[in-house]
Amino acid sequence: xxIVAVVDHGAGNLVSITQGLERAGAEAFLAGxxxxxxxxxxxxxxxxxxxxxxxxxLERVGFIETxxxxxxxxxxxxxxxxxxxxxxxxxxxxxxxxxxxxVERLQETPRLPHIGWNDLLMTSDDPLWRGLPPDATFYxxxxxxxxxxxxxxxxxxxxxxxxxxVAVRDGHRVGVQFHPERSGANGLRVLSNFxxxxxxxxxxxxxxxx
Length: 210
Description:
Blueprint: E1 2-7, H1 14-23, E2 26-31, E3 42-45, H2 51-60, H3 64-69, E4 74-77, H4 79-82, E5 87-88, E6 93-94, E7 101-105, E8 114-119, E9 121-122, E10 137-142, E11 144-148, E12 154-160, E13 162-170, E14 173-176, H5 184-209
Parallel strand pairs: 1-2, 1-3, 3-4, 4-14, 5-7
Antiparallel strand pairs: 5-6, 7-11, 8-10, 9-12, 12-13, 13-14
């Protein structure tokens, strides 16, 4: 069984994310303290609300250093993705700095927030998209999105007024702006693909240790 720690920093969607991971085949648990992710095959960083408030919660429970140092598979969802970057214009907050770039308010949109179903425009054959149909749609709720410094980390975009980044990868760190746990069969496929990455990483670690 693939063991996944869901970082519990007070985000409001923890139950649905944990349940989604379990439907995908994981043994998922909420990690309220940094040491609890030790031994996990992967970590999920969820988030709702603002980046500043999320960073304050992470700092309060002591997770910032642990997340920066974590070398295994890490999946950021919604605000969790935004926290990967250096900062956000939402509240001029400093984020984790795992990737270069900032989070910016969406421009030229019909309205904000961007809420509801939208197409995923894949810009790479990232393993997270294995088995997805070319017209896959996902559920979004947000008004901000990352603008990575390195366009090479962008794995998918969507269009809402204009195109913008909604998914990234840098090694084992992957993030999505949409909510896979609320995106039906397509979201379940994304979570299953993340679990496959977790299993592959753990198998590689066991091989090195052996």
